[in-house]
């Protein structure tokens, strides 16, 4: 009996490893579900994540990102896919929004009323991954861009970019104003671009999440440098 269990376990491990190796080559994109659809509501405002993203890797610098605002995929519409790094080595990819403002690029993620019950960035797996390791791969219009994300912690700065208040507020039962939802924004920097040297980022006006640092708090003087 024990021998049979060992053989069965070995076969199962072999199948899992073979499947992952295959997906590493072929890729597995996250499915797209329209956020305004009934299906999205029934699923708890979430969808199955993907794994590796495949496509031609862009190695030239982009100096104007306005074109991303015009991307209209027949299935994914004006969203893009982002592949984040997990602690266990298998990537976690999701669909999210993107905005270009000239030479600056941004992505955003929505923290809805249900997710407000958890502390950001741990309300979503992909945002927690980015807080731990901001290096990501993004698939935009069929091509792969290797990027570094930097959270914009200053809500006033986000409001200027977003052109509206990123916080949705309501009056609670106690008569006090409460934050119901938040749209979080990240500045996106290209990396692994020869013209950019080692890909280090300055992030002069954008503050990343550091260990023990929360949006709205003052950035620690001895905060560590971000990954290139």
Mean pLDDT: 76
The proportion of strand residues reads 25-35%
Oligomer: single chain
Going across the biggest sheet, name each strand in turn. 2-3-4-8-6-5
CATH T-level topology: Pnp Oxidase, Chain A
> What is the number of domains?
1
The CATH architecture assignment turns out to be: Roll
Q: Can you tell me the CATH superfamily?
A: Electron Transport, Fmn-binding Protein, Chain A
Query: What is the terminal-to-terminal distance?
Result: 52 Å
Could you write a compact summary of the structure shown?
With 228 residues, the chain is of the alpha+beta class. The chain has a single domain (2-196), classed as Electron Transport, Fmn-binding Protein, Chain A (Pnp Oxidase, Chain A). Helices cover 20% and strands 26% of the residues.
Secondary-structure blueprint of this entry?
Elements: H1 2-26, H2 38-42, E1 56-57, E2 79-84, E3 92-101, E4 104-111, H3 125-132, E5 135-140, E6 143-151, H4 155-162, E7 167-171, E8 177-190
Parallel strand pairs: 1-6
Antiparallel strand pairs: 2-3, 2-5, 3-4, 4-8, 5-6, 6-8, 7-8
